[in-house]
Amino acid sequence: MFLRSSRARFAFTITSLALLGLPAIAGAAGEKDAEAMKLHDQAMDEDYLAVEFDKAEKKIKDALKRCGKDGCTDKVLGKLHIALGTVYGGAERLDEAKSEFVAALKADPKAALIDALTTPELAKAYKDAQKEAGGSASTPAAPSGQGDGGQSSSKPEGDISHTPTAEQAVNTPVPVYIEIPEEVGAAKVGIRYKPFGSKKWKSLDMQQVGDGWGVEIPCDDVTTTGDLRYYIIAKDEAGDPVGTAGSLKVPYKVPIKNEIDEAPSLPGKKPPQKCAAKEDCPPGLPGCPGSKGDGEARGDKPWGSSCEETRECSSGLICLNGTCEEGSETTPDKKSTGKKNLAGLWGQLDLLLISGKEQGVCSGDDPSYVCFYQDGGQFYGQPAAIPGTNGIQGGLGAAGARVLLSYDRHIYQITPSVALTAGLRLGFAFGGSPSSSEGPRAWEEAAGLPAPIQNPHAQANGFLPLHAELRVGALFGNATLAKKKVIPFAFVGGGLAQVNASVNVSVCDYRGADGSSLAGGGGEGSCPAGTRAVRDLNAYQITGLNFIGFGGGAIYGITDNFGVAAELKFMLMLPTFGFVIAPNVGPVFAF
């Protein structure tokens, strides 16, 4: 009796523990499911719709890692693998998509494709996965969120209000416009669209138009009647989505018809012109290759499309700052277009072409040269005419550097590809030559010394660090700056500047440091009797204080407002002559 009751109590205890543990296990699984599905929804509803496939892939893989082997239910695992396969399909990695579908069907034989995100390619990959998995999973849904007849009855999703274009005529660009509240923080807006009958979605960047953003979907994608589908994605400065209008699941639709009542347009713009169908493009028809007045074949890119050359844009548009805009390449007054001001901060290296001279560099009778001791005092001696001394060889010498602020103005469009500019440079020079705090001493007369007896040296003036320059130039393009474009330029000008460079010189001096005569002395080193050896004098060639400059360079646009520029400037120094080669580099800003 006792044994029987003990066994009963033991069985009761085990059963109770099991029953109490089941809710905990189920709760843990439910918590894992919730965490995984949260990442799933973020990946598919945000990243995938924003065409950020790499971000979507990472989040779904993170969800699978959190699930582990037994952390999530089979149903959730199936959904995660289906989602990852869908992402791979969007990135056209169909083999990987099929592998994920196989994994989904093995985890959950009832796992099905995401109705609104299915494409014909994904449907085929799913069917192949069914055969490989050996299951009888659900039949794939109709692609791209279409129900029977290919129509979607759902209202477009999104958190930004948008009114779509009511209708558009076939072979005519479709204008799309949206106003985005300032608090959304949109810095870039793009549109994803799918022409009627197409299997793939395409992308365009929208441009700021009035108080909103707009773009024209090109003729090539409006060649037949039917619904054009699209959705809009707004992103912040970091490129992260901050809002959408419509979605890949439920996009907006614009009916494309043979005839419409009223032609739509972007605010402040003319309605886009109908393009000639490619099969109806005989020579001479406006907008067709070889038509009169075009000069060359013209593309069909509408207003707002990105471009590199005007010929890519539709007739009547020009490529300006990388975008197809209204205008003509040749206007009667030939005024410049786009941003007309360019400011910059430059670093300049001065390389002076030093003139060679066999004798007389430190003699004081040539105003182009002034010599200093290593301690900074000016040399006022009387060098002897000894071969190999008191002379220099010619060549380039580093003469210091300059920091310059620049401003240039785009004044006049001479031709479609050449513009006249004017500008100025202000800055400060580093380096140069020292000045002397003491003037030359009178020389002591002594028998046997060569003439002149009067000291010919002049006290050295201080170096002028100021740089001021005016210039005119030619800019070879129709804008001061354009994203991912190199714009060459040339210039000529002049201004105020001084460029001095030094070389080492050794002399045999008839005079002592105080100007006294050394006549009768025994000489020093290689110097003859009556002289002293002075080694390593700094002989500065003095040039300026004015110059005439010319040169050229190029600007590369990192954006439409910011870029980097480099130029090579040549300076003819006057009235004390010198020739300077001055490379420059620095950032520039267009406004």
UniProtKB/TrEMBL annotation:
Keyword Hydrolase annotated: no
Low complexity bias locations: 133-145
Tree of life domain: Bacteria
Flavoprotein in keyword set: no
TPR repeats: 78-111
Alphabetical UniProt keywords: Signal, TPR repeat
Extent of the signal sequence: 1-28
Region (Disordered): 128-168, 286-305
Entry protein name: Uncharacterized protein
